């Protein structure tokens, strides 16, 4: 038995101890949705005291953090007061008060990613301009400020109209194919992007450590629901020609390094039939396209972000096995207390992992969870993804 230390009378301390002192870092998350929930699940592996700021006391992340603070992530005073409680701060959604983050950063709070990066990414107009300045390939675009200005760009059609700020999960995006669609556009500062003939849509997750070192996750191919404009399911690693894979990696890494910020970034890309690669959008946080990494990669995107925030070495992003993700969405025509129909059938499938986000209320198209499937056979992944999509339903009780 080691006897070189004695109690000093305080139940939590030692006197003349040879034990190394462990500093409990305080880490804050702005936002308490499902991304915050999964980030907190990964935090259990580290010595860290967690704080969450959210305006809903019943949000998915509320019961998993050490300290829940009720407040508005878009309010300067709320964000600033919250940030003064922690050593390091991150986000799970871009719609946060940048001015408070800038002041906190100036006063020594480590903000990951940097407010300068969030400020660019949260505004699609600034984001597209950033791509231009840094010679990142992206679709042609024009900036619009009112709905009435759209007819001036008739020759630009077909195009996609994206709200400059506030869009999320397919909201704030309208496809404008003909002049009859101009009415769907936004009467606010927005980006009108020339539509690209897309062969595949990819997501690349890039991790940047505090020392600037970087690593990339294998690309994921995303298949979208054309009605809801939400991710339907995805396959990872994507099956790509080597040339396309190299292009996607090089473009994603060049883009993320240009932000000059540590953090975890998700870069969404378009691949054309001619094997050209264009950046669509970037997210400065853990991302829906990386959920599979919890089971399917050696270091999940959530684990990786904690490594970055706590200034530990980056993890291994390689895939253990190919995987697919199926989003669990609220069923059409159902609003109210959530009931999961045929859940046991899905849980009984081999190599299938169900994640429910703990949202008590469902509504059509609401993200209620996801299912990860792992298998070395891509055909099996697609078969199970399709089967799960048509088996597991989120309906409202007594509907």
Uncertain spans, ≥5 residues at pLDDT below 50? 1-20
- What is the second-level CATH architecture of the largest domain? 2-Layer Sandwich
CATH class of the largest domain: Alpha Beta
What spatial form do the alpha-carbon principal axes imply?
globular
Helix fraction, binned, reads: 10-25%
Largest sheet entry: 9 strands, antiparallel
Sheet/helix structural class: alpha+beta
Mean pLDDT: 92
| Count of separate DSSP helical elements | 10
Number of domains: 3
CATH superfamily of the largest domain: ATP-grasp fold, B domain
How many whole angstroms does the radius of gyration measure?
A: 22 Å
What is the CATH third-level topology name of the largest domain?
D-amino Acid Aminotransferase, Chain A, domain 1
Quick one: how many beta strands? 23
Terminal residue distance: 64 Å
């Amino acid at each position: 038995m080691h006897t070189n230390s004695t109690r000093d009378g305080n139940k939590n301390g030692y006197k003349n101890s040879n034990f190394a002192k462990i500093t409990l870092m305080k880490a804050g998350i702005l936002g308490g949705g499902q991304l915050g929930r999964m980030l907190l699940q990964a935090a259990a592996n580290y010595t860290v005291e967690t704080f969450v700021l959210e305006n809903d006391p019943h949000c998915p992340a509320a019961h998993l953090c050490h300290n829940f603070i009720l407040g508005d992530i878009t309010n300067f005073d709320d964000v600033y007061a919250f940030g003064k409680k922690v050593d390091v701060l991150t986000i799970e959604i871009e719609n946060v008060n940048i001015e408070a983050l800038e002041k906190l950063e100036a006063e020594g709070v480590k903000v990951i990613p940097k407010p300068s990066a969030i400020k660019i990414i949260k505004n699609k107009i600034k984001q597209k301009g950033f791509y231009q300045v840094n010679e990142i390939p992206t679709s042609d675009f024009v900036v619009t400020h009112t709905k009435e200005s759209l007819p001036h760009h008739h020759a630009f059609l077909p195009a996609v109209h994206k709200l400059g700020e506030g869009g999320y999960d397919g909201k704030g995006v309208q496809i404008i194919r003909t002049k009859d669609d101009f009415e769907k556009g936004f009467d606010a500062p927005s980006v009108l992007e020339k539509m690209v003939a897309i062969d595949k849509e990819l997501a690349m997750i890039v991790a940047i450590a505090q020392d600037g070192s970087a690593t990339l996750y294998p690309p994921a191919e995303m298949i979208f629901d054309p009605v809801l404009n939400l991710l339907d399911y995805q396959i990872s690693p994507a099956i790509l020609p080597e040339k396309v894979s190299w292009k996607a990696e090089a473009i994603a890494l060049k883009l993320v390094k240009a932000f000059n910020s540590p953090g975890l970034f998700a870069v969404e890309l378009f691949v054309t039939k001619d094997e050209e690669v264009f950046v669509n959008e970037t997210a400065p946080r853990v991302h829906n396209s990386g959920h599979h990494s919890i089971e399917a990669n050696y270091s999940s995107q959530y684990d990786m972000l904690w490594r970055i925030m706590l200034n530990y070495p980056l993890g291994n992003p390689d895939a253990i096995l190919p995987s697919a993700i199926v989003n669990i969405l609220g069923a059409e025509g159902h609003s109210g207390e959530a009931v999961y129909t045929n859940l046991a059938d899905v849980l009984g499938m081999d190599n299938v992992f169900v994640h429910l986000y703990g949202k008590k209320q469902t509504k059509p198209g609401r993200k209620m969870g996801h299912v990860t499937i792992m298998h070395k056979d891509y055909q099996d992944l697609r078969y199970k993804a399709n089967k799960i999509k048509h088996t597991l339903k989120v309906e409202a009780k007594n509907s």
